[in-house]
Specification:
- The protein is mainly α.
- It folds into two domains: about 80 residues, 3-Layer(aba) Sandwich (Glutaredoxin), CATH 3.40.30; about 90 residues, Endoplasmic reticulum resident protein 29, C-terminal domain (Endoplasmic reticulum protein erp29, Up-down Bundle), CATH 1.20.1150.
- It contains eight helices and two strands.
- A two-stranded antiparallel sheet has the order 1-2.
- Helix 4 packs antiparallel against helix 5 and helix 5 runs antiparallel to helix 6.
- It is elongated and about 70 Å long.
- The relative contact order is 0.11.
Amino acid sequence: YAPWCGHCKSLAPTYEKVAAAFKSEEDVAIANLDADKHKDLAEKYGVSGYPTLKFFPKNNKAGEDYDGGRDLDDFVAFINEKSGTSRDGKGQLTSKAGIIESLDALVKEFVAASNDEKKAVFSRLEEEVGKLQGSAARYGKIYIKAAKSSMEKGAGYAKKEIERLQRILEKSISAAKGDEFTLKKNILSAFA
């Protein structure tokens, strides 16, 4: 951006909302750069008009130009798609957060299985979760815990736990706890 740029000034409030929405994401950083003060960087990244928006994935130091829409929802959708996150414009996790599509079929099979068959499906679920990496591996552990609890506490466990988590989420809790409980609730919904 440039401090004298009218379009930059009008985009600033939206930009600040985007930064606030993703502040809890450890792998997402939203930053702005005064191109007048840092002409060397502006030149390096081909900034010739303002505002210029760039996305820098971890493995791409050159960055890529952002040419999508300029409202909050457009930015949030773009960052979610590129970063594998699931946030809304207010920074809350969406109902898709934590869901691992590759486990869907196994979870359905687990839920439909008789008590005797559940152990075999659970073993396959553990095997698949063992192959996951990054945040998916962390979410996979929640799947395993949910499946174990379902076997130990019966078919009604997931529904009761979702209701309990929802009551907690309606209270005043920290953003980190809210994220944690939302992830658990989303994953448990696959078992309900």
